């Protein structure tokens, strides 16, 4: 089961002007790094880190001051089941978080914080689904699956249908070297979807395909 392993990370992209034209570059200030397990080996903490970033965006949106979460809060203060997040002691895949684990973590934290938000898993989603959710003011986490069998959670914070571009807040640890206004990544739908739609044996066995987690506010 390789769904949490991230052996390869894309290089940071310089799209500062395009990002500023589409939406506030201040989203980059919410960036958090998933970190490394050891020198040169990226951790499998992309899931908890992505959840922490989304919660921090929501805290700002809800005018909750003096509170900011880190990946450690999600990892150690969420009541994960074994099937939500693999133990860190597992070789290679330790720390991998499933789609249902992302939902578990977020919804537990909304209860703790008393905020009217909820996470919902959508499996087999489509481009239209993603665009519709973003346009309606929701946030999304999406699971990319690499060619080598690893996988990686990223947050989608905007989608330009006109340019067919996806804007992501990615916990890629190499982005830490960029200034905040360049940490939001821009990717063509074609490139994004080639990873997002990919199937591997482990993902088929687990019923994981074209996964998104949608975060919405209860009215």
UniProtKB/TrEMBL annotation:
Lineage top rank: taxon: Bacteria
Region (Disordered) location: 1-20
Protein name, UniProt field: Peptidase C39-like domain-containing protein
Organism: Anaerolinea thermophila
């Amino acid at each position: 089961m390789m769904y949490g392993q991230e052996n390869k990370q894309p290089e940071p992209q310089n799209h500062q002007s395009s990002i500023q034209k589409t939406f506030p570059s201040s989203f980059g200030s919410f960036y958090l790094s998933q970190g490394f397990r050891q020198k040169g080996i990226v951790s499998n903490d992309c899931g908890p880190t992505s959840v922490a970033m989304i919660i921090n965006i929501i805290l700002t949106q809800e005018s909750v001051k003096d509170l900011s979460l880190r990946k450690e809060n999600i990892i150690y203060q969420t009541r994960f089941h074994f099937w939500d997040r693999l133990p860190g002691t597992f070789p290679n895949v330790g720390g991998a978080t499933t789609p249902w684990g992302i939902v578990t973590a977020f919804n537990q934290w909304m209860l703790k914080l008393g905020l009217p938000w909820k996470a919902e898993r959508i499996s087999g989603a489509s481009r239209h689904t993603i665009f519709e959710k973003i346009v309606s003011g929701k946030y999304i986490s999406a699971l990319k699956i690499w060619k080598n069998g690893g996988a990686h959670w990223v947050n989608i914070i905007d989608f330009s249908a006109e340019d067919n571009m996806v804007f992501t807040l990615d916990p890629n640890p190499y982005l830490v070297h960029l200034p905040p206004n360049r940490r939001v990544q821009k990717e063509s739908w074609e490139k994004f979807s080639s990873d997002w739609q990919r199937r591997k044996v482990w993902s088929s066995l687990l019923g994981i395909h074209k996964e998104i987690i949608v975060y919405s506010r209860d009215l």
